[in-house]
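Thread amino acids onto this structure.
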């Protein structure tokens, strides 16, 4: 049986009107430090988002969400944050924000396959 490792994850939410508190889950960021794994999946249901706020700037939301997987990958394309170790990038990504795109609190679990775990979390939390 493969060894299990602790992982941390956060849900990525879009909150188009912070004053109303309505939100949709659009992705998951998962970090497994023992395996130097950091990745995110983003799937934006644009119809649902428009139902919550017909005036939302979808182009801006898409552009800002695209930053998350880039930061997970790291490197120069991710800007100055991209040079941090994966754990530092994870902490930056999950820092509390009061903007349209917000991470949840960090949750913890155990897995032997972080990539499969990320897909499982997407199925449970984001996909309809």
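Threaded sequence (128 positions):
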């Amino acid at each position: 049986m493969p060894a299990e490792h602790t992982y941390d994850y956060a849900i990525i939410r879009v909150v188009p009107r912070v004053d109303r508190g309505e939100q949709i889950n659009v992705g998951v960021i998962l970090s497994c430090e023992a395996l130097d794994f950091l990745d995110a999946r983003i799937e934006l249901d644009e119809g649902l988002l428009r139902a919550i706020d017909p005036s939302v700037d979808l182009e801006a939301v898409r552009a800002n969400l695209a930053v998350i997987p880039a930061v997970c990958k790291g490197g120069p394309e991710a800007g100055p944050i991209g040079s941090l170790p994966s754990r530092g990038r994870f902490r930056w990504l999950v820092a509390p924000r009061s903007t349209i795109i917000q991470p949840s609190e960090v949750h913890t679990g155990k897995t032997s396959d972080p990539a499969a775990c990320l897909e499982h979390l997407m199925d449970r939390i984001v996909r309809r």
